[in-house]
Amino acid sequence: MTGTIEIEVPEAETIEDQVMYVEEFVEDLLQALTQGPHSLFEKCRAANEQLLSKEVAEQEKALELRETARQFKSRVEARQRILSREVDEMLADGRDRDAEEKRRESAKLESDLADILKQAEACEMRAGEAAAEQGANFIRHFNENFPQLRAATVRTIIAAVGLLDGVEAALRAYQLRSGLPRPFISEINHLMDLTPREQGFEQRYWQSLQGWFNPGQRLKQPKPHPTQH
Predict the structure, then answer these.
(1) CA dist 108 to 76, 83, 85, 96, 162, Å?
(2) In this structure, is residue 119 part of a structural domain?
(3) 26 domain-assigned
(4) Do residues 88 and 154 touch, judged by C-beta distance below 8 A?
């Protein structure tokens, strides 16, 4: 996708009609590039949909297991206090075998608690892996689709530059055809005024243009919300 972009404007009664058509064209192009079914963002969303569901499910399961472990730990601690007293009493009575059985019960409770926590950790690990894979998809889809995104954007900008150059040439030709010795079309008042003005409603667009050609300045400018075009 190189060269200039050609925008076929249908016949319209006024220049305003044609300008509105171009504005709608740019809006449609932006929609297709960023929100359409084949856009960078939609492709990534579709690829990550199942991974996101898996991540959420594993996170929820991990939370449930940790809550189960929290409640179970309280019961384990209470039961182990009882078992500890019973072990002491059995050892005092010479019932070593019974005491050993109580110790095994206590160890089993600790093991069961550790198993629950291990399951929670496994869920968290799987959730982390799903999140990491989503991140990898974001990078991969960006690398695959940015060239097309850039090409379409640059071709549209080239078309806008062609409009500026064409209007300038037309104005200079108009002045030349007038035959007047004194120019009435000036660089400052007219040609420079073909781009957004520094004051009023157009100021934000003037600032944005300045930023695009001055990266250091653009970094300091407030960024539009992701939902704004």
Answers:
(1) 10, 12, 17, 18, 79
(2) yes
(3) yes
(4) no
Q: Give the closest residue to 148 by CA, choosing from 37, 1, 35, 26.
A: 1
Any alpha helices (H) in the chain, and if so which ranges? 15-34, 40-92, 96-178, 203-212, 215-220
Tokens of 77: 């601690």
pLDDT at 167 exceeding the cut of 50: yes
- Count of the separate structural domains present in the chain: 1
The CA-based angle 224-7-26, given to 5 degrees, is: 15
Instruction: Let me know if residue 151 belongs to a domain.
Output: yes
Neighbours of 58 (CB within 10 A): 21
- Model confidence at 2, pLDDT cuts 50, 70, 90, reads very low
Residues 34-63 have pLDDT tens digits of: 777 677 778 788 889 999 999 999 999 999
pLDDT digit string (tens) for 186-224? Answer: 887 888 888 898 889 999 888 888 888 876 665 565 665
Q: Is the pTM of this model over 0.70?
A: no
DSSP labels, 139-155: HHHHHHHHHHHHHHHHH
In a domain, 224, yes or no: no
| Distant-in-sequence, close-in-space partners of 145: CB < 8 Å, separation ≥ 6 | 39, 40, 43
Distances (CA, A) of 226 to 35, 167, 199, 223, 229: 12, 33, 25, 9, 8
CA–CA separation, 146 and 1 (whole Å): 12
**Domain housing 180:** 15-194
